[in-house]
Amino acid sequence: MTEAQLTALLTELTALPEETEWVEFKHNNDNPQEIGEYLSALANSAAFLHRSTAYIVWGVEDRTHTVLGTKFKPRTAKKGSEALENWLMRLLEPQISFQIHEFTYPGQGCCYL
């Protein structure tokens, strides 16, 4: 996805009246166990609701949906000495296909989808 597409998607997601079974907003949550649990729950919910995609978004305050940016960098985070992304792919069962997109939301800094 291009930065413009990611920005448009984030604008669409933050316009939702509240988080859903397939959208979760986080500001700086960097707990690997919780991230794995969220990914699993979101994937299960998306499948149950016949949605092709679910989202966990870092850089958004969950109550107000205000884009704040984040200090957490999931693409470079580690669980022990292993890259977080690899750790999640290896341990989530059943295996979940996911992608991490980093982009800058205008005026708010770094966000991840």
Kindly list the characteristics that best describe this protein.
113 residues; alpha+beta; two-stranded parallel ribbon; two-stranded antiparallel ribbon; 3 helices
Structural class: alpha+beta
Order of helices and strands: HEHEEEHEE
The overall pLDDT average reads: 90
End-to-end distance: 11 Å
Provide the spatial order of strands within the biggest beta sheet.
1-2
**Residue share in helices?**
25-40%
- pLDDT < 50 runs, ≥5 residues: none
SSE order and pairing:
Blueprint: H1 3-14, E1 23-26, H2 32-48, E2 55-58, E3 78-79, E4 82-83, H3 84-91, E5 102-105, E6 109-112
Parallel strand pairs: 1-2
Antiparallel strand pairs: 3-4, 5-6
Structural notes for this entry:
This protein is α+β, with helices and mostly antiparallel strands. It has one domain (3-112). It is built from three helices and six strands. It has helices spanning 3-14, 32-48, 84-91; strands at 23-26, 55-58, 78-79, 82-83, 102-105, 109-112. A two-stranded parallel ribbon has the order 1-2. Strands 3-4 form a two-stranded antiparallel ribbon. The protein has a two-stranded antiparallel ribbon with strand order 5-6. A hairpin with a 3-residue loop joins strand 5 and strand 6. The radius of gyration is 13 Å and the shape is globular. The N and C termini lie close together (11 Å).
Can you describe this structure in just a few lines?
Helices cover 33% and strands 18% of the residues. The protein is α+β, with helices and mostly antiparallel strands and 113 residues long.
